Amino acid sequence: MNVLLYYVILIVAIYILAILFRDRLKIDIYGPILMKRTQKMRGWIDFIANLSPRFWRWSMNIGIPIAILGMIFMVYTIIMSLMIMIQSYMVQTSSAPAAALLLPGVDVPGSPVFIPIVSGIIALVLLMVVHEFGHGILARAEGVKIKSIGVILAAILPGAFVELDEEDVEKAKKSAKLRIYAAGSIFNIALAGLAFVVVLILSSSFIPYAFQENGVTITSITHNGPAEGVLKEGMVVTNINGFQVNSRTDYTDLIMNKTKPGDKLTFVTDQGTYTITSTGQPHNASITYPGTRSETHLVVKPEVSSKYGEILPWFLYYLSDVGYWVFALNLMVALFNLLPFKPLDGGIIFEELLGYKLSKEWVDKIVSSVTAVMVSIVAFLIIYSIVPGIISMVT
User: Fold this and answer.
1) How far apart, in whole angstroms, are the C-alpha atoms of residue 214 and residue 228?
2) Which pTM was predicted?
3) Residue ranges covered by each domain of the chain
4) ∠ Cα 239 242 245 (to 5°)
5) What fold does the segment set 212-303 form as a domain?
6) Cα dihedral value 47, 51, 52, 57, nearest 10
7) What was the pLDDT predicted at 18?
8) What pLDDT does residue 94 have?
9) CA distance 1 to 18
10) Residue 2 main-chain phi, psi, to 5 deg
């Protein structure tokens, strides 16, 4: 049973329990949307906001232009991605960008990203908490009341929210609204920066000191992929088609540059020698696809093991891994959230900026038009990149 099916079973179970125990659990149901509100944690947000309201306001004065730059960057990025994707489809090149499904543990064929389940869940929880606390802290610093805090499940998409007092928000100045709406993504970017520093320190100093490369470890086998039923998670690959493999760089180079779809790939592993027949990636048939994910296989150096043992080096290694996903997911989601379409924060920021010079009628027309265009582009990129892989997983 693949991880995607586990997610489906979990979500169905949550919906059933929510319906059966709606009153006892105090869950609000709006069609496919489940919401659980609470009054808890508001004290923590008030405490943090009241440490220095002036600091939070001034820091977000810097955050607003950063958010606007992020919005411009993301608009440019998705338009360029669309152009490259159309061009690659027309000429059948291998340069098409691919979107990713941000579900920890789900390996979509052809997706450029696979998020480990434990590190991914930790990173996503931190992402949601920091994002909503950012909105809440700036709201309280601006004198806007918080009605409730909660979690939400919209079909298959989990999330968190801070519900603000609508009357207070309406009374607030536009500059205050911009600080509140920008805070979520800026807090995520700040957390990504902190995580990046931790990863940089560990990966540039301790990990090279403590570990040595020794092949690649297969971290996952894609459902219905060429390697399914032949290779297994945890195998250590040291040779492919007669070429030595010392690291993931070697592995990727061999697969991408020395083979083509349909070639047989012979893997020499610590559990024996196995041969598979590669295919093309779901979103680009010209790229060799073995149906595996891998990472460099590391072993603790003998001199480090004798001095520090095995536990400390591996603890710091996994800390670096969690830090990487905290960095990557916070940055990706923060930037995506700045796209100028509602209901994303970027769409609300865009609306407030237009409101400085334009009438509400013109603002509504522009925002609705930009939203329609942006949603269409994002939907097309996702469908082109992810749907073929998901179909291959379930068929």
Assistant:
1) 24
2) 0.84
3) 35-204+326-394, 212-303
4) 30
5) Pdz3 Domain (2.30.42)
6) -30
7) 87
8) 47
9) 25
10) -80, 165
